Amino acid sequence: MGGTRGRSKKRAANTDDMWNSKSKKKSHAAALEGTAEKLFQELLDGAAEQQPEEEIDTEQLNMEGIAMLGEKLGLDVETDLRIIVLLWKTGASKPGTLTKTEFMEACKNGTLPIENGWSSVKEMLPRLDIGFLTGNEFKDFYKFCFQFNRQGTHKTLDKELVVALLPMVLKDRVPSDRLESFCDFLTSMEGKQEQQYNRITLDQWASFWDFCVECEDLGAYDQSSSAWPVLIDEYVEYMEEKLKK
Amino acid sequence: MANAKVIPLEEGWNEIKAKALDKLQNILNEDMKTGQTNLFGPKEYVQIYTTCYDMCTQRSPYNWSRELYQRHGETIEQYLNDYVLPALKDKPRQGSNILLTELQHRWKNHQIMNKWLKKFFTYLDRYYVKHHSLPTLSQAGLRSFRTHIYDVIKADTTQAILSLINDEREGKIIDKTLVKSIVELYEGMGMGTLDAYTTDLENPLLESTREHYARKREEWINDSTPDYMIKAEGALREESDRVAEYLNSSSESKILKVLEDEILERVEMVLLEKETSGCRALLQNDKSEDLNRMYRLFQRLENGLVPIASIVETFITEVGMEEVQRRQARVDGEKDKNDDPSFIKALIGLHDKYLAVVKNDFAGHSLFQKALKNAFVEVMNTNVGQFTNAELMSTYCDRILKSGGEKLSEAEIEESLDKIVQLFTYLTDKDMFAEIYRNQLAKRLLASRSSEDAEKLMIAKLKVQCGTQFTSKMEGMLSDLAVGGQQRQEFEQRIRQEKIPLDFSVLVLTTGFWPSYKSPEVTLTDEMQKCMNIFRDWHDQKHQKRKLQWIMTQGNATVRGTFGKKTYELMVVTLQAVVLDALNDGVTLGYEELAQRLNLEGDMLKPTLHSLSCGKYKVITKTPAGNKINNTDTFTANAKFTSNMRKVRIPMASLDSSFSTKKVEEDRTIAIEAAIVRIMKARKTLQHQQLLSEVLAQLSFFNPNPRVVKKRIEALIDREYLERSAENTGVYNYLA
Prior knowledge:
The structure holds 2 protein chains of 2 kinds.
Chain A: H1 2-19, H2 22-50, E1 60-61, H3 63-73, H4 82-90, E2 98-99, H5 100-108, H6 118-124, H7 135-149, E3 157-158, H8 159-170, H9 176-188, E4 199-200, H10 202-214, H11 230-244
Antiparallel strand pairs in A: 1-2, 3-4
Chain B: H1 9-29, H2 42-57, H3 65-89, H4 96-120, H5 122-132, H6 137-169, H7 176-188, H8 195-220, H9 225-246, H10 251-264, H11 268-272, H12 279-284, H13 288-298, H14 306-333, H15 341-361, H16 366-380, H17 389-401, H18 410-424, H19 430-446, H20 452-466, H21 468-496, H22 526-542, E1 556-563, E2 566-573, H23 574-582, E3 588-590, H24 591-598, H25 602-613, E4 620-623, E5 634-637, E6 647-649, H26 661-683, E7 685-687, H27 688-698, H28 706-718, E8 722-724, E9 731-734
Parallel strand pairs in B: 2-6
Antiparallel strand pairs in B: 1-2, 3-5, 4-5, 7-9, 8-9
Helix pairs in contact in B: 1-2, 1-3, 1-4, 3-4, 3-6, 4-6, 4-7, 6-8, 7-8, 8-10, 9-10, 9-13, 14-15, 14-16, 15-16, 17-18, 17-19, 18-20, 19-21, 20-21, 26-27, 26-28
């Protein structure tokens, strides 16, 4: 995110040099704001068309609105993570929602480049690939994935969702056998253990990533001294059992 | 003395030699008579001393100090070489006693000679010796003896002493005084240190002791362990006595150490593990004396008690487990009850027995206390059958405390409680015991079936073991009853004004102290309801901030019933009373009607009806007859009911389960989380393992699985009391 912010400052400096006038700057900002308003309204309208019977909150985009955003940018919301990276960069703070304030602010500070409408945003899409995220950025983004996918006031994610989400988010960062076996493990917990793992907590979600980074070799895993969540302990047990067979 | 005649060296020396030295030699050679201590009279002595003095005080070149000092030495040396050494030379061949006797004799003589020579030449000691820092006369004399006699003869004498000691070890009588005096000679030869004694006598002695007892060990080891131990103990005592009698006291610890090595340490495991007479066998046969001897012997060794304690622990665990198996067999044979006094009694018996063994035979040594504890922790926490040992123990307490149970005297009650509390300390799930105990206590208290003093006594004992927190609810229950007693009188005065045809009293219990009871909203009789309203008004007025909840399942009533011509007093619980009232005056009601009228669900109404119509006293007739209450049954009062007693108690099964494991689980969850938060609040940041061990240390009433604690940590992370440190996933931060 730091990089993005740096770029926007630079652009502002250039403007100053060329016109050296506050009013020009103001009018540029006003124009930008107008475009942003227009684009946001487009998204709201698109969403309203999709769900005509619902009452539309004009101050925020719901999931339909976000799907609309994906459509405008030519992204498949179901499978393309770049839409979530974009939302993360825009600073979406509520699960499944992008507020107008957040949208406008992102347009203003250049996180969302909109000089030429949607095409400007499209231009930046290649930069949103999660492969570009550094370790800490990714960690933050990874947590965002959990938070954004929460439903309203629920503090946990449904297991099915986690099993679908994890491979998308981690596929290039975690060895596929680890990912697959973990998802298998989650699915196999069905009905067992008083169904305690039907929902996944943020701590469990976040710890799985740390666990993948810190513990590549399961053989070296020491359950008695580990501070990992019990879920991870049980995953390791599950893998040991599997090995024995 | 200026004009006094100068004494020439030879003249003076000859005088001294003739008057003193030769005479002394003669006396010594002629075997001086015993008791003759003054070999020289004062006059003779003064004369010799004066000559010596004069010779030493004459001015140079006539000062003969140096010469006299030299000749003093030569005199001794010559005497030793001419007389003493030859006398000893052939003795070793003639036997130890003869050698030692001769040496003793010669040593005595030398001491006399040395003494007198020192007296004669004492003036030398005062100035010449001091001035030139030479050995004093007596030192020089001793050194002479050491060089010319001791060093030559010591190998033989040491051998002689050792052979005498070995003779004594084999039971022969030896001349201890003789040996003692020779030992003193060895001690003297160190010139103020024990070096000579240690090197020349003690070391060879230790070596021969080692050999001797190594032989003995091989010889004794074929005996039974108790016999071996008796011999070993005897040997230790003998060696100790020997040192006291004629050796230097510093040798005692060294010699005993050799014995400990040879006859104890090397064969400890062999002795302990002897099939028919080892430690196990001794425990099995209650060989108190032998066990005590075993303890005395092996506590001498560093870590010598460890293997014994381990055998004791295994043994006690095994006998305890036998009881558990016996219980298992009983449980397999018949339906398990929460009351198995024979199991608890057997364990108490075992505990008494082995506590006494630890106390008496093993001197209460901490290793054995620990062994007993470990064994009982294992036994007490092995649960078989449907009911945990915690429940069995609590039920055993119930038997003791309940009036009409075991029928014990006050002293017996206290003793039994003491013992059960001892067992209780080994229980890991103390909270489980507390929960069950509280339930049973509540039953006893509500039914007034125990003595308050005994209840208080037991609670006090638990409090000593586990602290205030553990017993606060139980104490609260007792104090509810105490307060209730005072309030009842006040209320009785109040209700008398109302002229109610009922005896009515209420027990106010504090929520939380007591187990939670079901409280159905049963429709009561008008009289009852009226009484309750009066009480509620009265109580609300007194305690405005309290909320009353009526627990109908715990109430009792005595109702008068007339069956035919006979009248009985029926002692029933409130629900039974309400049902009886509904069927008063010969009314017949169907089950559904009853349920509706009384506003009772089946889980309450059915057991109540069952107790009245299917129990021992059938005061109600059920149609159709049968042992099960169906929704289609009808009920009416049994006009033909008769009983020999005028007062009839109609028992009814309890409507509340005795206790809930769930409750205990919940309490544990709270306790673990509270401990985690408490610790983290103080420490702010803590590593996982450390947090875990501190939590386990704080939880004294149960012993949770680490994974359970971990789950609580996770729950607290979810609730944002804690977070995982960003730098290290094994470290937690406290979030204020």
